Structures are given as C-alpha cells and as structure tokens.
Amino acid sequence: MQNEEQALEDGKFEAVTSPVSAFDVWANFGDDNTMQEESVVQAEEGKKVPFVGDKEPLSTLAAEYESGSPILLEKIKVLDKQYSAIRRTRGDGNCFFRSFMFSYLEHILQCQDLAEVERIKMNVEECRKTLQKLGYPDLTFEDFFALFLEQLEDVIQGKETSLSHDELVFRSRDQSISDYVVMFFRFVTSGEIQKRSEFFEPFILGLTNSTVEQFCKSSVEPMGEESDHVHIIALSDALGIPIRVMYLDRSSCDTGGVSVNHHDFIPAAGDLPRTSCGSEASSPFITLLYRPGHYDILYPK
Amino acid sequence: MQASRARLFKEFKEVQRERSADPDIQLVCDDSNIFKWTALIKGPSETPYEGGVFQLAFAVPEQYPLQPPQVRFLTKIFHPNVHFKTGEICLDILKNAWSPAWTLQSVCRAIIALMAHPEPDSPLNCDSGNLLRSGDVRGYQSMARMYTRLAAMPKKG
After folding, report:
1. Contact A10 B10 (CB under 8 A)
2. DSSP state letters, chain A
3. Dihedral Cα A176, A182, A185, A186, nearest 10 deg
4. Which of A5, A6, A139, B124: disulfide with B83, CB 3.0–4.6 Å?
C-alpha cells in the first residue's frame, strides 16, 4: 500500500528532491556543529543567569513587568503580601528540578530536620529498587544517587564536611554537582512514572502521542527536557515531598478580585515529612513560582 | 573528567563480564585511552547488512555521561541515516534524546536497531533515503547489499 502511494507521487517526488546540492550542504553541516552551537547558546545564557541565582526581593519581579500586563502586576502585588523573596534559576529546561534541588537542600540546611533526612533516604532506596526492577543497570544511575546522598549528608551541620549556606549556593552553581543532582531527580521521576504507568498513562497521552516508556526516554531522562505536571506529581510522590506551585500567568478570574492560582502537589503516600521549622502543618515547605515555561523559587514571609 | 572516567571504567568491567550476552556486539576500549572505543557489530539478519561486520568508532567527551559519545561508522555503509563519506550517524539518542541511562553497549544495540529500521525521512545519505522514500525498496536493498559485500565482508581469495 505504501508502495502504491509512493508510486502515485513519483512525479511530484522528483521535483521535490531535485535541488540535491541543498541537501549536500545539510549533510556537511553535521550534528556536531548543531550541538556545538547549542552549547554556545547555553553558555551565553549561563552568563546572564547562574544555575541558581541570588535571593532577590520580590520587588525585582514587579520591576520586570513595569510596562507589562496590568493583570500580572496586580498578581505580583498579591504575591508580595505572602512572599518576601525570589531566587531565580537558569531557563535551561532543568529549572524545575534545579529549583526543587536547591529549595529542598536549603530547607534541610536551615532546619536540620534529621528525621526528614532519614525519611527521604528510605524513599531514595525505594527509588533505587524501582529502577533495578525496571531493568536499569546500576552503573547507569548509581553515581547520580551517590552524589545526591552526599549533598544531603553535607547539609547536616556539625561535621568536617558540613556545608555553609554560601557553599550550598556555590555547589548548586557548579555544573559537575548541580547537573548530577538534576539527573538524579530525572531518574527518580522516570522510575516513578514507569512503576505506576497505569496511573500516569492518561496524563501522558494528553501531552504526547507516545507510550509511557517512550515519554520517559524522550521527555524525562534527557537533560534539558522541560517539566510538566506529570514530572512534578511523580517526583513529589516518589520522594514524598509536597510542593506548592504559584501560577503567575495572565488568566483572570470572573469574581472580580485578582488572586493568584496555586496548586499543592501532595504526595499520595502517607509518610509525609513532619513539618518542623516554622511552617504550618501539612503546608508544603517548597514553593515554586511558575511563569509559562519557567520555574523559580519563592520564599514565604 | 573524574566522573566520566569512573563511569567508563564501570562500563568497561561490565563489558568484560557480559561478553557473551550480546554475541552481535564486540566493544573494545583503546589500550591507552579510556575515552576512545571501537566496536564491531554484526549486520542484523533479514536486512541487506546481514553477514557483514561493521566497525564503529566512539569518541567519549569529558562530560560523559551527561553528554553523548560521538559515534561513527568506520566501515562504509549504504544507509539513509549514515553519512556515506564520514560515517556520521543520525540517531536521536546521540543528540537531544541522549541520557545517562544509555551505555556504550546499549548505543551499539540502538545502532543495530537503526540498521534494521532506517528512518528515510531524516536522511544523511540522500541517495539511500530517496530510494526508500520513492518506494524502491529493491533498489535500496541491492545497493546496501553491494556495499555490505564490498566493505563489510572478508574478501574472497
């Protein structure tokens, strides 16, 4: 059948393919060039925003939209009542994972919640087993797991290797550490999605036309692939960490007053972290600001 | 650099241990440089590459496994997704779909799968791609088989 179709189109086909020289140029323009160019673009982007930026007052967010949409400015005013600061992350497709990494490690560093450290370590071991059961060879993911666990140990104070807050910021900007932790989260997310593929399948079919496994291979595991709700649900569930996302977009509500939509991702499992360190019970200690296509970290007042 | 070396060393040990698991792939690390590998892969059966043995060259970057290895065919091959002159391979996992979940060994498996299932819509070898896209499967197969005989099989006599 395919042959018939092609045969019918034969006449047209020759016309389409006649400028062979153009194809030759493409053939000479190898993938190496493309990838080199990509990394140049990324390096330039990097000069503007580090992987994890400095904590800035929320007023810098308003300044960004000074001459922008009035709805956004109204929403920023609302945010300003609840949140004091923002920490930006680089828009390289890893911003959700990078924001989550910094926010979580900073929380542990500031609260010294050892029970939470023990709890998440057990979940990390579960994630390791999940990947093993799915047939991932240990050598493909173990370095990333080890590096995350090392960061987790190092934010606990009172040891020679303990990190100060400045050192945590420094490490989060060091590509060799930061990217490895991002990759750890990508493995965890992929494992969770595949483990509960029946649950995630309808969400994934809504996003792409691929199977759960294909989705994980093409949209979760590769660095730089942006995160969607599916990724957030999976990571939050796998590690048992609630995440709040505030949405700064142009949507307005009919009721008149401007409010900022938010969504709390609450893990399905029962073993939630105890909320020491000031935050109210059951409210997430990680809050991210979402603007279409990008995540940054928010700090409550 | 240190991380990539450690990872490659693990892959090296795994390759030694699992040598018999993949009889179609023979992956060898350069004696003096763990960032340079070559592989011999068997052409998949029921394809025009059957009976041929194809050599691949791997150049592994220092950022491996966050970045993919560069792989090309050293053996001449007539295939829509392999550049006829340079041996460069057009395969998504060697570019934007790369992730550290792949290994050099599984990349070889993916390349064997690509040999069996060409993607004529993203050709690096336009002559080969055009034959398939115009429905001339026989033309493609006979060209591919000829080059397999000329380049990928031991010469007779």
Report:
1. no
2. -HHHHHHHTHHHHHHHH--HHHHHHHHHS-HHHHHHHHHHHHHHHHHHS-SEEEEEETHHHHHHTTTS-HHHHHHHHHHHHHEEEEEEE--SS-HHHHHHHHHHHHHHHHH--HHHHHHHHHHHHHHHHHHHHTT--HHHHHHHHHHHHHHHHHTSSSSTTPPPHHHHHHHHH-HHHHHHHHHHHHHHHHHHHHHTHHHHHHHHHHH-SS-HHHHIIIIISSTTPPP-HHHHHHHHHHHT--EEEEE-SS---TTSS----EEEE--SSS-PPP--TTPPTTS-SEEEEEETTEEEEEEE-
3. -110
4. B124
Per-residue pLDDT tens digits for B9-49: 999 999 998 888 889 999 999 999 999 999 999 999 999 99
Each residue's pLDDT tens digit, A201-256: 999 998 888 999 999 999 999 999 999 999 999 999 999 999 999 999 888 765 66
The amino acid present at A18, given as its one-letter code, is S
Q: How many CB atoms lie under 10 A from the CB of residue A197?
A: 16
Cα–Cα distance for residue pair A92/A39, rounded to 1 Å:
11
Q: How close, in Å, is residue B156 to chain A by CA atoms?
A: 34
Q: Where are the domains of chain A?
A: 2-300
Active-site residue, A107 included: no
What letter would DSSP give residue B156? P
Interface test with B, best of A140, A174, A175 (most B CBs within 10 A): A140
How close B135 comes to chain A (CA, Å)? 5
CATH architecture assignment, domain B1-152: Roll (3.10)
**Domain ranges within chain B, ordered by starting residue:** 1-152
Mutate to test the interface with A, among B96, B109, B140 (most CBs of A within 10 A): B96
Considering only CB atoms, which chain A residues are within 8 Å of B128? none
Contact A244, A288 (CB under 8 A): yes
CATH architecture classification, A2-300: Up-down Bundle (1.20)
Alpha helices by DSSP H, listed for B18-155, are 104-116, 126-133, 137-151
